[in-house]
């Protein structure tokens, strides 16, 4: 029995009845009383005179019975697409019995017949295996396509509303940003008017002092000259204008503060919707994964920096993200978003170390190297922090945190080839917050 036949026999599979060989009669067992001439299906052992002539070489010639059995063996193989085993011929109607094979091949029996057939070297089996594998792949692809279709249908129902909410939040944030800019411009104009009024008041006061000095220098008999009414009226007007300017400035400052708070709330809401959108995409991607623990298709790389940040935020267990991280990521033209995603995953591991009770026992720079981050910078220059103070702070959870540690990514020049991931370390909460992703913040090198 050959290797494939022996394997199927060991697996204990029940043989399936095969189609009867053409021209063969119903089953007749070896102990039948019918004469040999009445059993056309029986591979009768032939006499040496009936043997086929030798084909040359040292191999003995095949007998007619061996040739017939070999032909039937190959016929089964072609019809059934698998190597026959003795148990199948024992129960198959119209096929020789294993005892006949043993008589025709007295030394090796079924194994000799199998080796003689040469089916183990036939490409037919390989073709059948390839066809079976192709069918399995087609069925798997059909299942994946069905799962993906269901995911897309669910996504089609949920995504429009989420997009609408995110777009509304972004629009409101843009409106708040515009109002805040307008308030800042008005406050700047009011401050300039205040400065001009103060300068004019100083001039009038200096003129008034000159007049008073002149009056004191006059002889006592002469009445002291009064300051011109025009000067007094102008001074009163300037004082009143100064008071109005100061009041308007205070009102504008209050308005700027209110608009700033409103902008922060709207940005946080927009960031929440972006995280919700990222989590929804991650859940749908998980639902589309193959079942039964089979390995699925490789994860598709993020197409944009924003998509990389959203995907990392939906998976992060320790790393936190400020609203500004999503805004800056959306503005980044960096051409390797997958590098951003991988770095954020490493930073999530680093944030887990930073959150450990009792401290890490080592610096952030040392821990960063342990998780595979090679371009870690512990802080920014004092010159940059002083000159561009607003760029190096980030509002988060009702507080303002200083930006310092960052990771450099890419090589070359330009925002499409190099990027930065800036962090804020909340020492009270033992947390790392992603503050800015994408473009290089201003410093003496930019």
Characterize the structure shown:
The protein has 446 residues and is α+β, with helices and mostly antiparallel strands. It has helices at residues 3-10, 64-80, 86-91, 98-104, 110-117, 123-217, 229-287, 305-315, 323-330, 337-354, 364-370, 382-387, and strands at 320-321, 376-377, 393-396, 399-402, 406-410, 418-426, 431-438. It has a five-stranded mixed β-sheet. A two-stranded antiparallel ribbon has the order 3-4. Strand 3 (393-396) and strand 4 (399-402) form a beta hairpin.
Main traits of this protein?
446 residues; alpha+beta; 5-stranded mixed β-sheet; two-stranded antiparallel ribbon; 12 helices; 7 strands; rod-shaped
Give the terminus-to-terminus CA distance.
79 Å
Strand content: 5-15%
Query: Please, what is the average pLDDT?
Result: 76
Radius of gyration: 45 Å
Number of helices: 12
Shape: rod-shaped
* Assembly status: single chain
- Which ranges are low-confidence, i.e. pLDDT below 50, for 5 or more consecutive residues? 1-56, 290-294
Number of strands: 7
Give the strand order of the largest sheet, numbering strands 1, 2, ... along the chain.
1-7-6-5-2
Could you give a short account of the major beta sheet?
5 strands, mixed
**Helix content range:** 55-70%
Pattern of helices and strands:
HHHHHHHHEHHHEHEEEEE
Helix/strand-derived class? Answer: alpha+beta
């Amino acid at each position: 029995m050959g290797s494939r036949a022996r394997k199927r026999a060991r697996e204990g599979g029940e043989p399936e009845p095969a189609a009867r060989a053409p021209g063969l009669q119903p089953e007749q067992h070896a102990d039948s009383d019918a004469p040999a001439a009445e059993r056309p299906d029986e591979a009768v052992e032939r006499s040496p005179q009936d043997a086929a002539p030798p084909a040359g070489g040292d191999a003995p010639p095949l007998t007619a019975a061996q040739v017939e059995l070999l032909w039937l063996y190959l016929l089964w193989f072609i019809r059934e697409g698998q190597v026959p085993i003795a148990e199948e011929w024992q129960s198959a109607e119209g096929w020789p019995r294993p005892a006949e094979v043993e008589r025709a091949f007295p030394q090796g029996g079924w194994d000799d017949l199998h080796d003689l057939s040469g089916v183990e070297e036939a490409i037919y089996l390989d073709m059948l295996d390839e066809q079976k594998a192709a069918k399995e792949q087609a069925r798997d692809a059909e299942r994946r396509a069905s799962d993906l279709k269901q995911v897309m249908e669910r996504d089609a129902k949920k995504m429009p509303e989420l997009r609408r909410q995110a777009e509304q939040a972004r629009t409101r944030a843009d409106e708040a940003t515009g109002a805040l800019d307008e308030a800042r411009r008005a406050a700047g104009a009011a401050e300039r008017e205040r400065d001009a009024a103060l300068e004019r008041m100083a001039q009038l006061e200096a003129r008034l002092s000159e007049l008073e000095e002149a009056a004191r220098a006059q002889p006592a008999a002469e009445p002291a000259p009064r300051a011109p009414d025009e000067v007094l009226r102008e001074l009163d007007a300037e004082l009143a204008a100064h008071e109005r300017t100061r009041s308007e400035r205070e009102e504008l400052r209050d308005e700027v503060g209110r608009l700033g708070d409103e902008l922060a709330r709207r940005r946080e809401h927009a960031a929440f919707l972006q995280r919700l959108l990222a989590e929804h995409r991650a859940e749908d991607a998980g639902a589309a994964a193959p079942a039964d623990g089979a390995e699925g298709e490789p994860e598709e790389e993020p197409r944009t920096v924003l998509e990389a940040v959203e995907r990392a935020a939906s998976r992060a267990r320790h790393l936190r993200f400020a609203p500004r991280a999503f805004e800056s990521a959306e503005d980044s033209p960096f051409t390797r978003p997958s590098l951003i995603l991988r770095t954020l995953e490493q930073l999530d591991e680093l944030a887990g170390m930073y959150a450990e009770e009792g401290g890490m026992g080592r610096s952030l720079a040392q821990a960063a190297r342990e998780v595979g981050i090679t371009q870690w910078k512990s802080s920014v220059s004092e010159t940059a922090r002083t000159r561009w103070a607003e760029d190096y702070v980030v509002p988060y959870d009702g507080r303002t945190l200083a930006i310092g540690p960052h990771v450099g990514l890419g090589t070359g020049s330009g925002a499409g080839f190099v990027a930065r991931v800036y962090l804020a370390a909340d020492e009270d909460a033992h947390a790392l917050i992603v503050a800015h992703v994408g473009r290089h913040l201003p410093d003496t090198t930019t």
